[in-house]
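User: What would this chain look like folded?
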Amino acid sequence: MTATVFILVLCAAALHAGWNAIVKGSGDKFVAAVAICLSAALIAILALPFVTAPARESWRYISASMVLQTTYFSLVAAAYRRADMSLAYPIMRGGAPMIVALASGLLFAEALTLTGWLGISLISGGILSLAVLARKASRAGLGLALLNTCVIASYTLTDAAGVRLSGAPIGYTLWVCIVTAPPVLVLALWRRGPALFGQLARSWRDGLIGGAGTMTSYGVALWAMTLAPVAMVAALRETSIIFATALSALVLGEKVGPGRVAAVVIIALGAATLRLS
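Assistant: Here's the prediction, encoded as structure tokens.
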């Protein structure tokens, strides 16, 4: 992995933590998640005429991603209603890199070095160690976060395969954002009814900021997966927990004790190890 890819994926990780903080800090987590998803689609539609369209072979992956991304947005909001971001976020993101690392060897025939495996293990272990600190958290919140781990791994592998076939990482990312919005809107209307539109209108500013953040973050990660092993990019992106922990403490006012700080240090060591692989 080149230094440029490494730095850009770290920037993407920071953006990802930022839009999750917007969801957690909002009064209505579900509406915030929906506003971000719809805003990302709106931005994507405006940008679409200026980018190359993805190849036909990648469209079945875009369709599969739509289902997985819709599930992901719903689970993010549900998990944050029941658990702190500083606990739910690391659990959601922690297991996915190891699942991706194990599966990508079979799906993409990518052989990682021993140093690469060590880096991924440190990142996953550091993130998942935070689950030990979640004993006082809602079991429902933890269960939703763990379920979302599997969804995250699934859409990561799906989109890694799709973007490599697309020949157009930016176009692929924009279309994933666009096709995900309609089912999310339908789900939201089913749950909230016509009152949803007024609720979304009050969240437009957070929606636009979060929408731009999530689209850019994921677009950078998908672009990186066309240049570097999928497992390494997926693991490095999950260093977003470092930024999420800082936001939890400094912005959301959550308690971040020594145990969580130690876990973040382990994650940072994992990222440094990946850079050396």
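Residues 23 and 32 are 5 Å apart (CA to CA). If you want, I can go into more detail on any region.
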